[in-house]
Design brief:
The structure is a single chain. The radius of gyration is 22 Å and the shape is elongated. It is mainly α. Helices cover 62% and strands 0% of the residues.
Length: 267
C-alpha cells in the first residue's frame, strides 16, 4: 500500500473533478487519511506515555511501597494521604497506557486489512458496578461503595488481560510494543489491587474486605476461531480502557473525600 509520499499521485489534477460515487480512488484516499491520522495520534500519545513513564518510574512500582513488609501490605505503615496519591498516579498511568494499547491495536488491524467496531453503549464494566452519572448520585454513594467497586473492577480485569497477552503472542507480526504495554498493564493492575486492599483496610477496617468475589469473566470472552480471538482481544482492550478511566475517577473522588474534602462532587 502506498504511503504519504504517494498520496498526491492518487489525487486528480486541478482540472479534473473528484466524484465520490464513481471514482475508485476516493475510498483509498479516505482510508489513507484515516490511517495517517491514527498514526499521528499514536505518535503523540506514545511520546506522552513515555514521558510519564520516565517521570513516575521511581514512584509507580506499586502503590504500596513497603520494601520491608509482606507483598500484601497487611502491616504497611504508609500514610493514607501518600497511599491515595500513589494509587491515583498508578491508575492514571494505567489508563494512559490503555489508551496507547487501543491505538496500537487499531494500527495493527489496519495492517491486517481489518476494521472492527465496538457499538456505542457497549456494556463493559461488571453489571454490579453502576456508574454514577449525576452530581446527586455522586453525593449519595459511600466511600465503602467506591472501594468495593474499585476492587471489583480491578479483579474483574486481571484474568482477561493475562488471556489477551497469551493470545497476542500467537499473532503473526504483532507489534512488540503492544505486547510490552499489555504485559505492563497486567502487572500494574495486580499492583493496584494490592493498593486497593490496603486502602480498604485503612479506611474500612479488616471487616471491610467482606464482599463477594469478582464477577465471572470466562463467559464474556469465549472464542472459536482466529477472527473471534481477534474480536475478543479487541473487546477486552477497548473495554478495559473505559473501565481503567472509571478506576482513576473513583480513586480521585476517594482522595478528594478523604484528604482534600472540597468540591468532591465535580467528577
Amino acid at each position: 500500500m502506498k504511503r504519504d509520499g504517494d498520496l498526491s499521485m492518487q489525487l486528480k489534477s486541478p482540472g479534473q473533478q473528484l466524484c465520490p460515487e464513481t471514482d475508485p480512488q476516493i475510498p483509498y484516499v479516505k482510508a489513507t487519511i484515516a490511517e495517517n491520522m491514527l498514526m499521528n495520534m499514536l505518535m503523540v500519545l506514545q511520546v506522552c506515555v513515555a514521558f510519564v513513564l520516565c517521570s513516575l518510574q521511581a514512584m509507580t512500582g506499586s502503590p504500596v511501597d513497603c520494601s520491608d513488609q509482606d507483598t500484601a501490605g497487611t502491616s504497611c505503615t504508609i500514610s493514607l494521604e501518600k497511599l491515595l496519591e500513589r494509587a491515583v498516579q498508578h491508575a492514571d498511568l494505567i489508563y494512559r497506557v490503555s489508551e496507547e494499547s487501543k491505538l496500537l491495536f487499531d494500527e495493527m488491524l489496519i495492517s491486517f486489512g481489518m476494521n472492527l467496531h465496538i457499538p456505542e453503549g457497549t456494556m463493559c464494566a461488571p453489571k454490579m458496578v453502576p456508574v454514577p452519572m449525576s452530581k446527586n448520585e455522586i453525593q449519595q454513594i459511600s466511600d465503602k461503595w467506591i472501594l468495593h467497586s474499585l476492587l471489583i473492577l480491578v479483579q474483574f480485569w486481571i484474568d482477561p488481560l493475562v488471556e489477551v497477552q497469551s493470545s497476542l503472542e500467537n499473532y503473526e507480526n504483532a507489534p512488540s510494543v503492544l505486547l510490552t504495554r499489555n504485559k505492563w498493564m497486567s502487572t500494574k493492575l495486580m499492583s493496584l489491587e494490592q493498593g486497593v486492599l490496603v486502602l480498604i483496610r485503612q479506611i474500612l477496617g479488616e471487616d471491610g474486605l467482606l464482599l463477594g468475589g469478582p464477577e465471572e469473566t470466562s463467559n464474556h470472552f469465549v472464542s472459536s476461531d482466529m477472527l473471534e480471538f481477534v474480536r475478543r482481544d479487541y473487546s477486552v482492550i477497548y473495554c478495559f480502557r473505559k473501565d481503567a478511566h472509571k478506576m482513576y475517577t473513583f480513586l480521585k473522588l476517594l482522595k478528594c473525600r478523604q484528604i482534600d474534602k472540597e468540591n468532591c462532587s465535580f467528577f
